């Protein structure tokens, strides 16, 4: 179905598209909101709203397209170059009013606001070959070129994007500036089968609340999560049960030269008293910072094991891609051992632990310490870990639509990270591909039943057992990836008991 009109009829076109395609009420509302937002944007930028507005697609996904004819007179090049924009609206306004010639005359300058000539290969991958040669601005290019600059300068421009209706409800937003026209394209998908998915898997009733957590897949969504949670380490404080101590650990593997690390120390432990230790690498596909449940888990482990728990805030992708995090993890572990007296660590009892990609780092540290002749961890606790980047397991094929994290999201993360395969294997970013598994420390491997990474955990457990490693495999039932988020669930309480029993056995054995 395709309709066209001046932009002033956008909501009318959206309503007709929804009716023709039998789109449910919730999706109809989102579609109408997007059309209204586009209309309002154009009204703000033009005295006489104009443009050809179309919607193409079906009741699963659609593309909203607003096409402007080439400006009659090319926009004059601003004296002194590109102005300093105060908001995202000003940037979009500049692009919608600019001609192809104007952008071409200041190509280096517009690149700093996320505008560049799109590569043919990227256009083909997105099914947008018709825009070859265009200057393009995307939410993604903005988030990973401009966001970092705004972070460093202290500006808060990203807040405006996070509040934008279009950014919140769409899958992709792009502006193409071509020689003969300019186009604003918004892609949307409709969760038509949400209720069916809830009944598709036998997820534990106490975990079904996790369906409400959006699965962040796009670069823009990932950057928002990074910005939302980056200040959490500063908010962690001591309680009656534990002290939170902040360290800046030197790390040559880090581009910044140092890794901020939180130590959770049981309250009954004196400052200089030597205790076992756990180095806990948080998960998040190397892209996401530590989330609230990671801090909670670090505190629980400290309380129940009597060990000092170190939680490093390693560098995040895509600014710093793997194997950076693997190298940092090994160096932090080694540094804590070498400075055991300073940190009050009983060096004979240091374990590693991690969830998801943190499990990757923990498994990699276990492999690398063996290969480099460094003291092995006392044990490795791998929680719903990512262990095989080849991604050819049955669970990766099956769990494309489960909550929190699914195989579609994982494949999106892999594209964003774009880690080097040869380098990745060398540094065991894909531990299941290591050449040998002999002589590794005892392992506790926990899997979630409805998790794309489920089979990677069970297969790695079998690999380690065949190599003579002591392994405890806990295949939790009715669970999904990162189910630690459901902090009061009985299934999590049972898993916490088994995790800490393993850690106590290797730390105090």
Strand pairing plus helix content: what structural class? alpha/beta
Coarse morphology: elongated
Question: What is the CATH topology assignment of the largest domain?
Answer: Rossmann fold
Query: Ranges with pLDDT <50 over ≥5 residues?
Result: none
Q: Compute the number of strand runs.
A: 14
Strand order of the largest sheet: 7-8-10-9-11-12-13-14
Total domain modules: 2
**CATH top level label of the largest domain:** Alpha Beta
Structure description:
By secondary structure, the chain is α/β, with parallel strands linked by helices. It folds into two domains: 7-192, no CATH class; 206-507, Alpha/Beta hydrolase fold, catalytic domain (Rossmann fold, 3-Layer(aba) Sandwich). It contains 21 helices and 14 strands. The protein has helices at 10-20, 25-45, 88-97, 100-105, 107-111, 120-125, 139-153, 157-163, 165-169, 194-200, 219-229, 232-235, 292-305, 324-338, 340-343, 357-372, 394-398, 407-417, 421-426, 454-466, 490-507, and strands spanning 52-57, 61-69, 115-117, 135-138, 172-177, 181-189, 242-250, 258-266, 275-281, 308-312, 345-355, 380-383, 443-450, 471-480. The strands form two sheets. It has an eight-stranded mixed beta sheet, with helices on both faces. Helix 7 runs parallel beside helix 11 (219-229), helix 13 (292-305) crosses helix 21 (490-507) and helix 14 (324-338) crosses helix 16. The N and C termini lie far apart (69 Å).
């Amino acid at each position: 179905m395709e309709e066209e009109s001046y932009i002033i009829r956008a909501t009318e076109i959206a309503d007709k598209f929804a009716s023709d395609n039998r789109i449910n009420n919730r999706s109809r509302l989102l579609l109408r909101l997007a059309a209204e937002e586009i209309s309002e944007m154009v009204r703000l930028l033009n005295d006489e709203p104009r443009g050809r507005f179309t919607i193409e697609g079906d009741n699963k996904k659609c593309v909203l397209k607003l096409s402007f004819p080439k400006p009659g007179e090319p926009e004059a090049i601003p004296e002194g170059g590109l102005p300093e924009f105060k908001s995202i609206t000003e940037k979009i306004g500049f692009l919608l009013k600019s001609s192809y010639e104007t952008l071409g005359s200041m190509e280096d300058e517009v690149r700093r606001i996320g505008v560049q000539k799109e590569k043919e290969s990227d256009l083909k991958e997105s099914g947008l070959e018709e825009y070859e040669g265009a200057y393009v601005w995307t939410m993604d290019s903005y988030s990973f070129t401009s966001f970092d600059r705004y972070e460093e300068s202290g500006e808060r421009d990203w807040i405006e994007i996070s509040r934008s209706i279009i950014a919140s409800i769409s899958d992709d937003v792009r502006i193409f500036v071509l020689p003969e026209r300019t186009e604003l394209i918004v892609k949307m998908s409709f969760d038509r089968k949400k209720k069916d998915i809830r009944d598709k898997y036998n997820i534990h009733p106490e975990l079904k609340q996790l369906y409400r957590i959006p699965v962040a897949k796009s670069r823009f969504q990932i950057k928002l999560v990074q910005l939302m949670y980056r200040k959490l380490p500063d908010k962690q404080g001591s309680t009656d049960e534990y002290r939170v101590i902040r360290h800046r650990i030197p790390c040559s593997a880090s581009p910044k030269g140092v890794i901020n690390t939180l130590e959770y120390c049981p309250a009954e432990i004196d400052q200089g008293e030597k205790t076992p230790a756990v180095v806990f690498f948080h998960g998040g596909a190397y892209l996401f910072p530590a989330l609230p449940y990671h801090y909670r888990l670090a505190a629980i482990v400290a309380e129940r094991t009597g060990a000092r728990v170190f939680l490093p805030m390693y560098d995040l992708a895509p600014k710093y891609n793997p194997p950076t995090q693997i190298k940092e993890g090994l160096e932090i572990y080694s540094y804590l051992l070498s400075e055991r007296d300073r940190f009050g660590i009983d060096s004979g009892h240091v374990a590693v632990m991690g969830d998801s990609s943190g499990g990757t780092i923990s498994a990699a540290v276990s492999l690398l310490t063996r290969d480099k002749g460094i003291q092995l961890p006392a044990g490795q606790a791998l929680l719903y870990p990512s262990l095989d980047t080849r991604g050819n397991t049955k669970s990766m094929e099956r769990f494309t639509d489960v909550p929190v994290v699914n195989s579609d999201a994982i494949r999106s993360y892999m594209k964003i990270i774009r880690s080097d395969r040869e380098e990745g294997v060398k540094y065991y970013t894909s531990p299941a591909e290591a050449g040998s598994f002999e002589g590794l420390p005892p392992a506790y491997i926990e899997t979630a039943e409805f998790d794309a990474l489920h089979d990677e955990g069970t297969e790695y457990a079998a690999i380690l057992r065949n190599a003579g490693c002591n392994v405890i495999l806990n295949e939790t039932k009715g669970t999904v990836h990162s189910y630690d988020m459901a902090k009061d669930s009985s299934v999590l309480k049972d898993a916490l008991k088994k995790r800490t029993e393993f850690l106590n056995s290797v730390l105090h054995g």
